[in-house]
Amino acid sequence: MKITVLAGGIGAARFLAGLQRVVDPTSITAICNVSDDLTWHGLHVSPDIDSVLYTLAGEEGEHGWGVRGDTTVVLDELRALGGDAWFTIGDRDLATHLLRTARLLNGGTLTESTAALARARGVGVTVLPVTDDPHPTIIRTAEGDLSFQDYFVRRRAQGDVLGFDFPGADAARPAPGVLRAIGEADLVVIAPSNPFVSIGPLLLVPGVRQTLADAHARRVAVSPIVGGAAVKGPAADMLRSLGHEVSALAVASLYRGLVDLFVLDAVDEALLSEVRALGMDALAVDTMMTGDEGRERVARNVLAAAGFDADGLPA
Amino acid sequence: MKITVLAGGIGAARFLAGLQRVVDPTSITAICNVSDDLTWHGLHVSPDIDSVLYTLAGEEGEHGWGVRGDTTVVLDELRALGGDAWFTIGDRDLATHLLRTARLLNGGTLTESTAALARARGVGVTVLPVTDDPHPTIIRTAEGDLSFQDYFVRRRAQGDVLGFDFPGADAARPAPGVLRAIGEADLVVIAPSNPFVSIGPLLLVPGVRQTLADAHARRVAVSPIVGGAAVKGPAADMLRSLGHEVSALAVASLYRGLVDLFVLDAVDEALLSEVRALGMDALAVDTMMTGDEGRERVARNVLAAAGFDADGLPA
Predict the structure, then answer these.
(1) Nearest neighbour of B78 by CB, restricted to A44, A99, A121
(2) Does residue A184 fall inside a structural domain?
(3) Is the residue at A129 inside a domain?
(4) Distance, in angstroms, between B147 CA and closest chain A CA?
(5) Confidence (pTM)
(6) B13: nearest Cα among B67, B71, B91
């Protein structure tokens, strides 16, 4: 069985961590959002890729980013010297960005640097950036256009989002292996990630949406909205300010035509018939990924909902 | 009194640290070599500027580079991940390179980033890069051409040096303030730095040598060679492999026409008449800069030898 997961940051990372406890990690490919990548003091930082790598390596930080127990000697010194220190990067985390940047400057691609980092951390899952090309998210707000991290970290995702702009989308080429991983998978999972700024930009990379629409795989999305709130991040606020209802149903409607099955949390069971009315199957299961056991349970629940058992056989 | 010091790394840094104990730091300008600058994992590192800044701030590392008592969390992680870790950069040191790089990427110059770092560390001496342009040293060896740090750090300055190449020299423009600092000084000191790879490239920046040759200042060089050996670094090996005698006299001969006075160490007193035969004054004083007191003593000795007292009055 081949499983491909379309992934944002921490929600996807936790789902993937559960999945690799249930199936052979080498059967899993994660296609990661890069539209919140940033250049930090000259270094290329890929927050979603790093959340996925650190989490799969069992080293994720307490808050879902960075390396667990990391120190901040560099950042403290940067702040003491009057530098911009609003984006928190720990010391061990920094080594990741240095390695990536060095590789990119030596002519390597983001795909290659990601593979090297995965190898170095003993990650068995194939982790791919959706594209090796620049493909940033611009957040349109009443105060003007902001880069994703300026909005999300510096301004703590405050203020209404009026829309999004993806100026690199048309020119972004899918990274090597991305379309194949979608086209040849037995199961594609859209992770419980933000539909606007994590999954949205993935689908905008030319070829990705169409390949998913045409895929022979069983296609499943897991709701990032549980009980009318986002488990993590600004998805709920974005839904609200963009005029959507804050619910798993609103997310499901965004994935119409792209998934066969929408998995929502048991607390949202009442929405099942409305989701089905969108033209997709729907199932309610426990989707809360608390602890290793919770992550594993969610992975098992999603696999079962999709009709597979842990050996990849149709259940 | 205005004093301008042509500076390499640690020898110059220690001399400057002594000098600022004797005269008003704001009367001192250090013009720093940048030909051993390197790009390290995407970050702009200026080892000589940093040695000068850290030393003037009283924070220099035990070996003459980096920040005293610095940790190496980032470098250890980089090594653990299989990255290139032969160039030792500590955590607090790294913050310097991040700040410099961010400023350069934002359109700032090396002059501006150096001034900002000096301010942040409370350094009163004006520290200038000799040029804001790329001006690297290439070391010609039997094994081929090497970048300076590849030769000096990675290969520990092993192997005979056949010569030097400065491919950026002709296009390098003196940084703002450099020619004026030489032209308007009352005293110019060529610090006890390597004549080939520290002072040499400074003098190759168009306008610098001529401005020094024409300067109205009293011009003094301090020998980096004491008793036939370099106090620090590869100067002695370079003199030998390039066919020079390893002596203060050989260094003096390289500065003919550029200095009025050559200061050598008391142990080399026997060379005084030969140095004078090159057409410059010569004086033997204690030049060993051990501890704060040693640095201060050398600064006083050089000032006195040049004919100034600590108030800048002709003694």
Answers:
(1) A99
(2) yes
(3) yes
(4) 16
(5) 0.92
(6) B67
